[in-house]
Amino acid sequence: MLDSIIKYLEVNLEIIKLDAKEIMVRLIAKMMKAVIMMILGAFTLLFISLAFAFYLDNLLGSEFYGFFIVGIFYLLLFLIFWLLRKKIVNNIKQSIEVEIPIRLDFDDKE
Hints:
The chain is mainly α. Helix content is 85%, strand content 0%. The chain is built from three helices and no strands. It has one domain (2-99). The longest helix has 59 residues, at 2-60. The mean pLDDT is 87.
């Protein structure tokens, strides 16, 4: 009887290990996909921004104004993200808690 209980506990422990491993593999795969998408998106955004800046330079007849306008646009985006940073962090925390079925403590100590 004792041997059966020990084997049952060992099997359950192996199942828990396999479940944890599966969760980590899925999480790592999703993170790798996100990193690749961010890199590709950054390059796309960079080249589109450069093309738009050069287009505005030709349109405005200046070598400065196109890049200045694109720079101001990105400064405004930065300020918007800065003002909404807590909401963005909370949304990211919620999405992580859905992916990982354990409680993570990410509370800000500010």
